[in-house]
Amino acid sequence: MPLSEQEQRMLDEMERHLLQHDADVVSAPSGDRALSYRNLIYGALLLLAGVGGLIAAVVASGDLGATWSIVIGVVAFLAMLGGAMLAFTPVRRASLDVPPDASSAGHSTRPHDTSFMDRMNDRWDRRQDER
Predict the structure, then answer these.
(1) Which of 1, 3, 25, 94 could lock 7 by a disulfide, CB 3.0 to 4.6 Å apart?
(2) Does residue 77 lie in a domain region?
(3) pLDDT at residue 108 above 80?
(4) 58 in a domain, yes or no?
(5) DSSP secondary structure of 22-65
């Protein structure tokens, strides 16, 4: 069922208001920091190594004695904690950007250089300009 003129005007007004006032709020948390896939992988590997060390400490507690199994367990826990921190600590986006001389076909901007919200806002603006 199509919208009436009044409903369409109200919807357009709400969209404009949302675009003007809330678009910055939605895109603000991203900032200039992002998660690094390399750090995620290294962190996950360190976390798995810590879990393995913790299991090894429990298994070897009878052979090595209580003191060494506690030391191995603490080191394994610290490795797990370090892996989690490494995996989920954001890095600056400047280190993730492609160098400017690597641009293809002379285009000044590539789609992956801008954030998802910026591209959606640009598409929205183009649609609104066409009306």
Answers:
(1) 3
(2) yes
(3) no
(4) yes
(5) HHHHHHGGGTTEE--HHHHHHHHHHHHHHHHHHHHHHHTHHHH-
pTM of the model: 0.47
Per the structure block, which two tokens stand in for 98? 């492609």
For 36-61, what is each residue's pLDDT tens digit?
888 999 999 999 999 999 998 888 88
Domain count, the chain: 1
Q: Is residue 8 part of a domain?
A: no
Q: How many other CB atoms are found less than 10 A from the CB of residue 83?
A: 21
In angstroms, the CA 44 to CA 92 distance is 20
pLDDT at residue 93, rounded to an integer: 63
Distance CA 37, CA 15 (A): 35
- Residue 16 forms part of a structural domain: no
Enumerate residues 6+ apart whose C-beta is below 8 A from 19.
Answer: 121, 124
Q: How far apart are CA 66 and CA 74, in angstroms?
A: 12
Phi and psi at residue 118, in whole multiples of 5°?
Answer: -65, -40
Burial (0-12, 13-18, 19+ Cβ within 10 Å), 57? buried
